[in-house]
Amino acid sequence: MDLEAATLQFCKTPHLERLARRLGVSLPAPGTGYHRHLAERVAHGIEYDKRRAAAEERRMTEAVRVAEKIAESLGEIGDRPKAQIRRIVALMGAQWTSDACEAAACLVAGMGPDTLGLLRLPDGTKRSFGGVFFAWCRREATAAVKEGRITRRQFFR
């Protein structure tokens, strides 16, 4: 039994029950040893929560690394575009974002016809490479919302 589990043995039962509910841990059946079983389940819940937080931290670190690389390739130096790219990587994934960057590069290089209208703004001025990338991402993410692959809440966040 580690230090946290030992500390939980001295917590009062209502506090443990509240903590168990917050962690999503099921409460044991009432009876003898209820407090001990509850403390053990809460300790396991805390360990699971720590592992999940560490995995999320690793995923976000990877997303930041990929986003920085994509921002550099797009020539985006501002904080706002970099933050938008980080959000795109976090929502859609690193592979999807890299593919979107390649698709934008192909459009800018003229390898495909601009049938989608992504190369120019509505007033007719030409978009930058980063502008084409963001327009491509917006179009593809809108299609993903319509198909149900991501929710509207995730998209507009």
Mean pLDDT: 82
Class of secondary structure makeup:
mainly alpha
The DSSP helix count reads: 7
The fraction of residues assigned to DSSP E strands is: under 5%
What oligomeric state is this?
single chain
N-to-C order of helices and strands: HHHHHHH
**Helix content range of the residues, please?**
over 70%
Largest sheet entry: none
Distance between the termini: 41 Å
Radius of gyration: 24 Å
- Unreliable spans are none
Spatial shape: elongated
The total strand number stands at 0
Q: Could you explain the architecture of this structure?
A:
- By secondary structure, this protein is an all-alpha fold.
- It has helices at about 5-10, 15-25, 35-75, 80-90, 95-110, 130-145, 150-155.
- The longest helix is centred in the middle third of the chain and has 41 residues, at about 35-75.
- The radius of gyration is 24 Å and the shape is elongated.
Layout of strands and helices, then pairs:
Elements: H1 3-8, H2 13-23, H3 34-74, H4 79-92, H5 94-109, H6 129-147, H7 152-156
Helix pairs in contact: 2-3, 3-4, 3-5, 4-5, 5-6
Please give a handful of descriptors for the protein shown.
157 residues; mainly alpha; 7 helices; elongated
In short:
This protein is mainly alpha-helical and 157 residues long. It is built from seven helices and no strands.
